[in-house]
Amino acid sequence: MTDEIRTPIGFWLKHLDQLIEDGFDAALATADLSRRQWQVLSVLRARPRETPELIIELQPFLTLPDAERLLADLERRGWISDRSGRHELTADGVVAWSAAAEHAHEFRSLTASGVSDEDYRTTLRVLRTMAGNLSAAAATSGAGEAPRN
Protein backbone atom coordinates (compact mmCIF):
# COMPACT_ATOMS: atom_id res chain seq x y z
CA MET A 1 0.00 0.00 0.00
CA THR A 2 1.38 3.43 -0.92
CA ASP A 3 1.64 6.33 1.55
CA GLU A 4 -0.97 8.09 -0.57
CA ILE A 5 -3.51 5.36 0.19
CA ARG A 6 -2.43 4.82 3.82
CA THR A 7 -3.17 8.41 4.78
CA PRO A 8 -6.85 8.36 5.78
CA ILE A 9 -9.48 10.36 3.95
CA GLY A 10 -10.20 12.35 7.11
CA PHE A 11 -6.70 13.78 7.01
CA TRP A 12 -7.06 14.91 3.40
CA LEU A 13 -10.53 16.35 3.99
CA LYS A 14 -9.42 18.40 7.01
CA HIS A 15 -6.18 19.47 5.33
CA LEU A 16 -7.94 20.54 2.12
CA ASP A 17 -10.70 22.30 4.08
CA GLN A 18 -8.14 24.39 5.96
CA LEU A 19 -6.25 25.21 2.75
CA ILE A 20 -9.51 26.29 1.10
CA GLU A 21 -10.49 28.43 4.11
CA ASP A 22 -7.11 30.16 4.26
CA GLY A 23 -6.80 30.49 0.49
CA PHE A 24 -10.26 31.94 -0.02
CA ASP A 25 -9.78 34.42 2.80
CA ALA A 26 -6.44 35.51 1.29
CA ALA A 27 -7.90 35.74 -2.22
CA LEU A 28 -10.84 37.84 -1.04
CA ALA A 29 -8.85 40.06 1.34
CA THR A 30 -8.12 42.56 -1.43
CA ALA A 31 -11.88 43.07 -1.74
CA ASP A 32 -12.18 43.38 2.07
CA LEU A 33 -14.33 40.25 2.26
CA SER A 34 -14.11 36.98 4.17
CA ARG A 35 -15.15 33.69 2.64
CA ARG A 36 -18.35 33.65 4.69
CA GLN A 37 -19.27 37.18 3.61
CA TRP A 38 -18.60 36.15 0.00
CA GLN A 39 -20.86 33.13 0.41
CA VAL A 40 -23.71 35.22 1.83
CA LEU A 41 -23.38 37.81 -0.95
CA SER A 42 -23.28 35.05 -3.58
CA VAL A 43 -26.44 33.41 -2.28
CA LEU A 44 -28.26 36.75 -2.04
CA ARG A 45 -27.06 37.69 -5.52
CA ALA A 46 -29.22 34.90 -6.91
CA ARG A 47 -32.32 36.10 -5.02
CA PRO A 48 -33.36 37.60 -1.67
CA ARG A 49 -33.53 35.20 1.28
CA GLU A 50 -34.72 35.12 4.87
CA THR A 51 -32.14 34.19 7.54
CA PRO A 52 -33.38 30.58 8.00
CA GLU A 53 -33.11 30.03 4.22
CA LEU A 54 -29.56 31.37 4.22
CA ILE A 55 -28.56 29.03 7.03
CA ILE A 56 -30.02 26.03 5.22
CA GLU A 57 -28.26 26.94 1.97
CA LEU A 58 -24.93 27.61 3.61
CA GLN A 59 -24.77 24.59 5.92
CA PRO A 60 -22.38 23.54 7.38
CA PHE A 61 -20.68 26.93 7.15
CA LEU A 62 -23.12 29.09 9.11
CA THR A 63 -24.88 28.85 12.43
CA LEU A 64 -27.61 31.29 13.44
CA PRO A 65 -25.24 33.46 15.52
CA ASP A 66 -22.68 33.49 12.67
CA ALA A 67 -25.37 34.41 10.14
CA GLU A 68 -26.76 37.20 12.31
CA ARG A 69 -23.27 38.65 12.83
CA LEU A 70 -22.44 38.46 9.11
CA LEU A 71 -25.77 39.92 8.06
CA ALA A 72 -25.41 42.82 10.51
CA ASP A 73 -21.88 43.53 9.21
CA LEU A 74 -22.95 43.38 5.56
CA GLU A 75 -25.91 45.64 6.29
CA ARG A 76 -23.64 48.11 8.15
CA ARG A 77 -21.42 48.22 5.05
CA GLY A 78 -24.47 48.98 2.91
CA TRP A 79 -24.06 45.79 0.87
CA ILE A 80 -27.36 44.20 1.86
CA SER A 81 -30.70 45.49 3.07
CA ASP A 82 -33.14 43.84 5.42
CA ARG A 83 -36.78 44.26 4.49
CA SER A 84 -38.87 42.69 7.22
CA GLY A 85 -36.47 39.80 7.69
CA ARG A 86 -35.81 39.30 3.98
CA HIS A 87 -32.24 40.11 2.98
CA GLU A 88 -31.23 41.31 -0.47
CA LEU A 89 -28.17 42.77 -2.15
CA THR A 90 -27.99 46.51 -2.62
CA ALA A 91 -26.36 48.15 -5.64
CA ASP A 92 -23.20 48.59 -3.51
CA GLY A 93 -23.42 44.90 -2.59
CA VAL A 94 -23.42 43.95 -6.26
CA VAL A 95 -20.32 46.13 -6.76
CA ALA A 96 -18.60 44.48 -3.77
CA TRP A 97 -19.50 40.99 -5.04
CA SER A 98 -18.25 41.85 -8.53
CA ALA A 99 -14.95 43.21 -7.17
CA ALA A 100 -14.33 39.91 -5.39
CA ALA A 101 -15.68 37.57 -8.08
CA GLU A 102 -12.52 37.48 -10.19
CA HIS A 103 -10.38 36.63 -7.14
CA ALA A 104 -12.78 33.88 -6.08
CA HIS A 105 -12.91 32.37 -9.57
CA GLU A 106 -9.12 32.45 -9.86
CA PHE A 107 -8.79 30.66 -6.52
CA ARG A 108 -11.33 28.01 -7.57
CA SER A 109 -9.39 27.46 -10.79
CA LEU A 110 -6.15 27.09 -8.85
CA THR A 111 -7.79 24.60 -6.49
CA ALA A 112 -8.94 22.33 -9.33
CA SER A 113 -5.87 22.80 -11.53
CA GLY A 114 -4.77 19.49 -13.01
CA VAL A 115 -8.03 17.75 -12.10
CA SER A 116 -10.11 16.63 -15.06
CA ASP A 117 -13.83 17.39 -15.14
CA GLU A 118 -14.49 13.64 -14.91
CA ASP A 119 -12.24 13.25 -11.84
CA TYR A 120 -13.85 16.27 -10.21
CA ARG A 121 -17.36 14.87 -10.77
CA THR A 122 -16.22 11.46 -9.50
CA THR A 123 -14.74 13.03 -6.37
CA LEU A 124 -17.98 14.88 -5.65
CA ARG A 125 -20.01 11.73 -6.25
CA VAL A 126 -17.80 9.67 -3.90
CA LEU A 127 -17.89 12.31 -1.15
CA ARG A 128 -21.67 12.70 -1.50
CA THR A 129 -22.08 8.91 -1.25
CA MET A 130 -19.86 8.69 1.84
CA ALA A 131 -21.74 11.56 3.50
CA GLY A 132 -25.04 9.86 2.65
CA ASN A 133 -23.82 6.59 4.16
CA LEU A 134 -22.90 8.27 7.43
CA SER A 135 -26.07 10.39 7.52
CA ALA A 136 -28.21 7.29 7.00
CA ALA A 137 -26.30 5.42 9.70
CA ALA A 138 -26.79 8.32 12.11
CA ALA A 139 -30.50 8.50 11.34
CA THR A 140 -31.02 4.78 11.93
CA SER A 141 -28.92 4.72 15.12
CA GLY A 142 -31.27 7.25 16.65
CA ALA A 143 -28.35 8.97 18.32
CA GLY A 144 -28.08 11.76 15.80
CA GLU A 145 -24.46 10.90 15.07
CA ALA A 146 -22.77 8.38 12.88
CA PRO A 147 -21.24 5.41 14.69
CA ARG A 148 -17.56 5.87 15.52
CA ASN A 149 -14.76 3.39 15.07
Automatic annotation (TrEMBL):
InterPro entries: WH-like_DNA-bd_sf (IPR036388), WH_DNA-bd_sf (IPR036390). This is Transcriptional regulator. It comes from Actinoalloteichus hymeniacidonis.
